[in-house]
Amino acid sequence: MKISKENALLDRLFDEAHFDLNPDQDSCPDCGDEGYVHDCIDGFCQDAEVGCEDCTRRCVECARFEQSIRRHVELDVLRFMSLPLAKEFLRRCNQWSNKITERALLANLHAGRVGRKEFSDQERADSACWVECLL
Ligand SMILES: [Zn+2]
Ligand SMILES: [Zn+2]
């Protein structure tokens, strides 16, 4: 599949978010970037070093970091206010569905701006105007 302009831009935004939120590229303090942690109960685990099915969990710290990255990139997406970019972003977050209309998407972007303190009244007024224009 050809890499679209939006995809390339999103890659860059994700990279920048990683850099902003973790400039030293530290490993996760909880799991060392494995993405999983093992909470072994003494004597029940086959191998406490590696962990087993019963004690292996998704790392909460990693999930939290991913969440911050997503919010960081989302802010950029809201700034761009571009439908193809927003669509690609949702796709990447597994939140895209073909049922989402352009109008709904735009309304969503506008709602995102309204809900974020990072945007000025002027920026909100701009996005409200774009929603109107699509009517
Ligand atoms: Zn175990
Ligand atoms: Zn982790």
Name the average pLDDT: 91
Low-confidence stretches: none
What's the number of structural domains?
1
Residue share in β-strands = under 5%
Q: What's the arrangement of strands in the largest beta sheet?
A: 1-2
Broad structural category:
mainly alpha
Secondary-structure topology with pairs:
Blueprint: H1 5-21, E1 36-38, E2 56-58, H2 60-80, H3 83-92, H4 102-114, H5 121-133
Antiparallel strand pairs: 1-2
Helix pairs in contact: 1-2, 1-3, 2-4, 4-5
Architecture overview:
This protein has 135 residues and is mainly α. The protein has one domain (5-17, 27-133). It is built from 5 helices and 2 strands, in the order αββαααα. The protein has helices at residues 5-21, 60-80, 83-92, 102-114, 121-133; strands spanning 36-38, 56-58. Strands 1-2 form a two-stranded antiparallel ribbon. α1 (5-21) packs across α3 (83-92). The chain is elongated. The two termini are 33 Å apart.
List keywords for this structure.
binds zinc ion; two-stranded antiparallel sheet; 135 residues; 5 helices; mainly alpha; 2 strands
Describe the structure concisely.
The chain is mainly α.
